[in-house]
Amino acid sequence: MYKIIKILIVITLLLGSAITYINPIASAEEDSNWNKIKQRGELRVGLSADYAPLEFEKIKNGKTDYAGVDIELAKKIAKDNHLKLKIINMQFDSLLGALKTGKIDVIISGMTTTPERKKEVDFTEPYMMTNNVMLVKKSDKNKYKDLKDFTGKKIAAQKGTDQEKIAHNEIKDSQVSSLNRLPESILALKSGKVVGTIVEKPVGEAYLKQNPELEFADVKFNEEKKPTCIAVPKNSPISLKHLNQTIDEVNNKNLIDKYMNQAAQDMQDDGNFFTKYGSFFIKGIKNTILISLVGVILGSILGAFIALLKINKFKPLSWLASIYIEFLRGTPMLVQVFIVFFGTTAALGLDVSALICGTIALIINSSAYIAEIIRAGINAVDKGQMEAARSLGLNYIQTMKSVIMPQAIKNILPALGNEFVTLIKESSIVSTIGVGEIMFNAQVVQGISFDPFTPLIVAAVLYFILTFALSRIMSLVEGRMKASD
Ligand code: ARG
């Protein structure tokens, strides 16, 4: 019996190596990337949806949806391979990292093949060829007739892109502003922070349509057209084969032209700024109010607890509370937000949504400030009150509850109102981790509207209305309390 098994094993091994010898592809055809996609039944496409007409967000029946050439291509790939499609929208410069760590399966984000990127990932056949142009202000067009005219000037480009590299390499002594999202580099140009922004031609054309004050400068970059491809992890021959099959068909049937037309339609304007984007801001307002309200309420409960620890006679507890307060007040909120966001997955292995992480960070941060507010409020009550109440026979808890606290509340409430106002403004920081509050939605609208400025003004006005209304309400309440004295 044993012998038979042994012989069988030897035969299979021999056969196996014979086959690999004859057909080296056979062993190379291992593709764990493709296996995982197939098992999941879902293709996770990473992209940066700030890049019309290739990928952007459009509004259909008040809902956002992804649109653009890359989205159509992704849909076709999914359909051809009987897979569901999941779009994962992130910053362009995090895409390669996400692909290498397996957070996404492929990158379809208008990505140009470059020698540096080829070291990290593999690319399919090209589905598009593009060249670069320099956007300038129309009024400046005559000043810039040659790349040399940009020598020593400030140029913007999207971070991590080929355009950023070109700005460094092809313009002498250039000062490059690398901005996370493309709309930001257009805003830099419009507001005069830079004199030019390098973009790919189809994208530049989309922006020209919406921004009549911009124009292409009459300059030529060194390289002519470069290939745009899909990126896959290294050693993914089967993924490449399937992707290339679809790309071949797309190229043969000129489908990209069709996708471009579709994208142009999806970019069509109808209605004014508010009918089109109002829903984003309303969603933003709701979330901003939600997270800051939960932030102050739970922050107050936690803060009251910390304050009680701090005024505790038992020193170690009081020190602990002091450390908590000092640490939270002495570190930037942005850092705290990131620690909660990445800490929950990296350190605790939990998959917590950005909204919850953002709210937790706000609660923790505000609890430190509120603890101090409460402590100061209690301390402000005259010491004699405690002594008097105690000598009348009330115990500590009774004294706190019916003598000290009612007076302390009058000091605490107004300060708590201020903290709420602060929190509404500070909550904009959680937009960085993708919580859909006002600032986040303003950035989304920047991307879809090709108007980098108006959404910021709208956001500012909204924050102001919220905080102003709140402080009016607070002074009303304060007036009432004074009257009741
Ligand atoms: N083609 C350029 C590159 O690969 C820019 C692509 C930017 N894509 C985007 N979705 N923002 O570097």
TrEMBL record:
Membrane topology: Multi-pass membrane protein
Main localization category: membrane
TM regions (residue ranges): 289-312, 333-364, 453-474
Highest rank taxon of the organism: Bacteria
InterPro entries named among the record's database cross-references: AA_ABC_transptr_permease_3TM (IPR010065), ArtM/GltK/GlnP/TcyL/YhdX-like (IPR043429), Iontro_rcpt_C (IPR001320), MetI-like (IPR000515), MetI-like_sf (IPR035906), Solute-binding_3/MltF_N (IPR001638)
Domain ABC transmembrane type-1, first and last residues per copy: 285-474
Annotated coiled-coil segments of the chain: none
Keywords: Amino-acid transport, Cell membrane, Ion transport, Membrane, Nickel, Nickel transport, Transmembrane, Transmembrane helix, Transport
SMART domains reported for this sequence: PBPb (SM00062), PBPe (SM00079)
Compartments in which it is found: Cell membrane
PANTHER family: GLUTAMINE TRANSPORT SYSTEM PERMEASE PROTEIN GLNP, MEMBRANE COMPONENT OF AMINO ACID ABC TRANSPORTER
Similarity annotation: Belongs to the binding-protein-dependent transport system permease family. HisMQ subfamily.
Protein name as catalogued: ABC transporter substrate-binding protein/permease
Organism lineage string: Bacteria, Bacillati, Bacillota, Bacilli, Bacillales
